[in-house]
């Protein structure tokens, strides 16, 4: 775990070809399956917003909202979002966003997936520590989720 307060970094080696891992990331419906958000009929397009209801138990009242940042086929996918924006009665739009970057690297026996979420130091102080803590734990689980998804599809 990175001890910085501004960024979360994770990586996982997935024993699958880069093309297969890329599909799990870049295909919106597949992404939603492992990430826990209903994205049926959605597409990821750089510069465009994407949203859908969260399907993770206990968070179904929340709409997942991101703006796709960069999409470089089979190499990089990134988006911006408001971290741990879980109160549907709060308007987070005035807050800075964090940047989530997934990078893929082919290895001799699979794919190395690197995840970085940065920009927490710009989040309002009253939300910063909790957003960092919750997303840090969330990314631990999401790395397991994508590995399981790729293995089973």
TrEMBL record:
InterPro entries in UniProt: ASHA1/2-like_C, START-like_dom_sf
Domain of life (superkingdom): Bacteria
CDD domains: SRPBCC_CalC_Aha1-like_5
Transmembrane parts of this sequence: none
One Pfam family linked to the record: AHSA1
Annotated ranges, domain Activator of Hsp90 ATPase homologue 1/2-like C-terminal: 15-149
Family from the record: Belongs to the AHA1 family.
Protein name: SRPBCC family protein
Species for this entry: Dyella mobilis
Lineage: Bacteria, Pseudomonadati, Pseudomonadota, Gammaproteobacteria, Lysobacterales
């Amino acid at each position: 775990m990175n001890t910085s307060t501004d960024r979360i970094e994770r990586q996982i080696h997935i024993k699958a070809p880069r093309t297969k891992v890329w599909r799990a990331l870049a295909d919106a419906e597949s992404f939603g399956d492992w990430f826990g958000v209903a994205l049926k009929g959605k597409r990821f397009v750089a510069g465009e917003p994407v949203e859908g209801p969260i399907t993770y138990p206990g968070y179904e009242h929340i709409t997942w909202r991101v703006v796709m940042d960069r999409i470089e086929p089979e190499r990089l996918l990134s988006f911006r979002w408001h971290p741990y924006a879980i109160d549907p009665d709060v308007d987070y739009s005035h807050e800075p966003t964090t940047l989530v970057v997934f990078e893929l690297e082919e290895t001799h026996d699979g794919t190395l997936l690197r995840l970085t979420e940065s920009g927490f130091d710009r989040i309002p102080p009253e939300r910063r520590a909790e957003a960092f803590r919750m997303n840090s734990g969330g990314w631990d689980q999401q790395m397991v989720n994508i590995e399981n998804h790729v293995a089973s599809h």
